[in-house]
Description:
By secondary structure, the protein is an alpha/beta fold.
Amino acid sequence: MFARSAFRAAQPLRMHARRYATESGAAGSSNTLLYGAGAVGVLGAGYYFLSGSSSASKAEDKVKEAIGIAPKAALTGGEQGWVSLKLSETEDVNHNTKRLRFELPEKDQVSGVQIASAILTKFKGPNDAKATLRPYTPVSDEDERGFLDLLVKKYPNGPMSTHIHDLKVGDSLDIKGPLPKYPWTANKHDHIALIAGGTGITPMYQLVRAIFKNPNDKTKVTLVFGNVTKEDILLKSKFDELENTYPQRFRAFYVLDKPPKDWVGGGGFISKELLKQVLPEPKSDNIKLFVCGPPGLMKAISGPKVSPKEQGDVTGLLKELGYTNEQVYKF
């Protein structure tokens, strides 16, 4: 994620604020006015997930949904306990991040993950006094059957991320969930902003995916995504596609701590000036800001969470900009 825990000021903005397009989007729309968009062909770590269900099975799902038959969930929370899932595929996304696909116990099961929720992983080494627990937000669609995808960045001396990266196809990982986060319903807010760093993008992607797969959800979305280098940008091809398809509803701003010479986005860390320029104003009606990232980002942008179940007061740049506790959610 970020190389330092303290944020320095970002370099001066090189582009003026942009507005949402007023016309309906179409694939292939120009991105020349998009801050940090793909104008220079920057693909970051964009990649495509393997298709997990056929059109026939999806049609069958719609029929079952219409008559009130919900698919069986592998993870049901409560007292169900841990489920051991077998690793079936791995994919190197960049120098320190992998996509890993885990098989569900039954091929016709869905994961049971909801919008927005996470899962908990568990690992205990032979010499460990106690098990290591870490939450992750799956990046596979909640309707996909038979598998669950995780996007995991390996951290130096990170016991869980190292363990997951060392897994071989056929190995298993203990998983529990779902862990409810922010319950989402279509059009719950008129405009949301997502401020993320590193793999803090995964709960944001989960939320964005749910919004834009629902034709009845008209929520506007602004993404501010900070990373160290261009190669660290995860899921960028997905966000580029959304910018092309929904220019009137989705926009993304990228900031790099170590930008290359040809970089057209922001440099340095996410700054107060950038947030003031691109976020919905705090006096706007029915908005929500979501924040997720490493401790340094959380401290600088919104303040850390008090505990997994307690948000704590908003501090940092969002407090300085006038946003209230009710307008900010910390993943």
